[in-house]
Amino acid sequence: MGRIGLPELLVILFIVILIFGANRLPEIGRGIGRGIRNFKDATRDNEHKTE
Questions:
Q1: How many domains does the chain have?
Q2: How far is 10 from 8, CA to CA, in rounded Å?
């Protein structure tokens, strides 16, 4: 499987807009951002506890 380029990302974005609608995209982005931040915080906390 090759790398994901700009055309593939545009197709994925188009499909997401079709499924969820343009109004819900910021809400979905915030949720994904929170999830990534929580994951990073959890891994960082785990590294400090093991030292």
A1: 1
A2: 5
